[in-house]
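Database export, one record per block. Field names are fixed; values are copied verbatim from the stored entry.
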Amino acid sequence: MQQQALFEKRTLSNDKSKQTQKKPRLGRYEGIIETLRKEHDPFKIFVDVDKSTHAEKTYNFIDLFCGAGGITQGMTQAGFNPVASVECVPVASATHKRNFPNCHHFCGDITDLNATAWLNEMGSPEIHVVTGGPPCQGFSTAGKRDPNDPRNALFHQFVRIVSEVKPLYVVMENVAGILTMQNGKVRDAIIEEFAKIGYPNMSVAVLESAHYGVPQFRARAIFIANRLGLQNPYPKQQLTPDNYRPIESAISDLPAYTPIPAINHEWTKHSAKFMERIAKVPAGGSLYETFADAFKRQYSGLPAMTVKENHGGTHIHPHLNRVISAREMARLQTFPDSFIFEGSMKKAMWQIGNAVPPRLAECIGYALIPFLNKSTAPFFDKINFSMTVKPTQAQSSIFD
């Protein structure tokens, strides 16, 4: 209580700003989530997840387009073993190597990677899951959503690696807006491409990170498929709006105006005049009208709005007259303080803003474990299951 009181005391008076603060826009993707809930997909199942979920063996996974390692961190927290990872951005690769030193990491163009030869060099470990998030800029609602964007070609590389590695399950994440792109044709094309390589019956769901204890609203489209005819498990929603984790629960104990570079607790330096301008920004408001998502004040008492680097214009702290720090961003993403980001402050923020919240990935991992246990059980009839899993005939695709 004392810490919270001190935290709130640091802010300037909010009496005026409360009168003008904008009403929070929550549930941006509730319509998509509800539509998916009503779809008839016999292979999609939502399961209860917790730390008591017991893995019958060590399950290995590969993280493609891993970035700094949000999915890797979350899956590791669920007990999975990160065998290998791929990332082309040097600073993100450096972060991944630092935090997962025992993971075989490929830093470079994924088109140059021969997955079979790579795994042979590691002793040919069995890969149970391939995860990853192919770059989504070409799909994102924040951009032009051009299906012919060359960045979308990297999706084909994801599919290629999966076809070479042949994991039991594949988990791919992307922006939620991808599901409505071209009236659902992009989604259908993704499912079709995986069916062609032996992963039919792919399921898709939009998971809201705040539902799983992440102190941030961040909805992600999660595609899950397997090659054994099993169901595709998703974690059941754990929290409701009345018990979401508010932003204060994650960042209130960090120093207000004293940086701690060792843990990435750094932020853009402000002049006294700039801080005066920030002081006038109400919750939900921005310093600018033309780029309203930059220098936008977070709401208090609620999960954070989706954190992002915003080209240096990160969101404003809910109580203090400064932008949030890289470490505060990391906490809102649920990275532990022991997870250190390489590079400059701005590059750290970029890595954090592009990551999947580890807690969300952890819950997905826990959901997978019972089904992996079943698929690796001694008497599991893989032959009969494989007979029901047949790739669809090749059809034209908007990705072709």
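Remark 1: DSSP finds 14 helices and nine strands in the chain.
Remark 2: The chain has a mean pLDDT of 86.
End of record.
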